[in-house]
Write a structure and sequence with these properties.
Layout (H helix, E strand, L loop, with lengths): L1 H4 L18 E6 L3 H17 L7 E6 L5 H11 L4 E9 L5 H19 L4 E8 L2 H7 E3 L2 E2 H19 L2
Length: 164
């Protein structure tokens, strides 16, 4: 398991570009809000730690993880963001619903990444139980929101470097 080998909140601070001129959209699922709220807090805190301004962080909620694709698409179409972070949590239950939501959301976000000029960062936690989600939302394995924020900064910087 990859997260067992790497804490989601560990990174080299000096390897992260200055985010003070970057604009971020965060789409967060209301479903499993105890987890997604912690992911959101991690992402916003980390963006600000690297210079992002409050007025350059747009947070929008959607009802569930499946709606992350639509929410991300709308943020991209608004033209107000340089990168989008999609945050959600799906915990496996007794039905195949988990499989459909996870696959559909993953495919939708991947499609946006492949077809737009705005990086969409995959912050969907897919776990077998609540404890695994807690471990990845600020628990013993760190916070996936931190990792997503760093990825968003680095991916927009990647685009900027290509344009030079």
């Amino acid at each position: 398991m990859a997260t067992a080998l790497h804490n989601l909140s560990d990174y080299d601070f000096n390897s992260v570009p200055d985010a003070s001129a970057m604009r971020f959209g965060i789409v967060v699922s209301e479903w499993n809000s105890n987890i997604t709220g912690a992911l959101l807090e991690g992402a916003v805190t980390t963006l600000k730690k690297h210079g992002a301004k409050d007025e350059n962080i747009i947070v929008q909620t959607v009802p569930g993880s499946f709606e992350l694709t639509f929410g991300s698409s709308q943020l991209i179409k608004s033209g107000k963001v340089d990168a989008v972070i999609a945050l959600g949590c799906v915990i496996k239950g007794d039905t195949p619903h988990f499989d459909y939501v996870c696959a559909g959301t993953t495919q939708g976000l991947a499609y946006l990444n492949a077809t737009t000029n705005v990086p969409v960062i995959y912050g969907l936690i897919t776990t077998n139980n609540l404890q695994q989600a807690i471990d990845r939302a600020g628990g013993v394995l760190g916070n996936k929101g931190d990792e997503c924020a760093i990825t968003a900064i680095k991916m927009f910087d990647f685009i900027c470097r290509l344009k030079k």
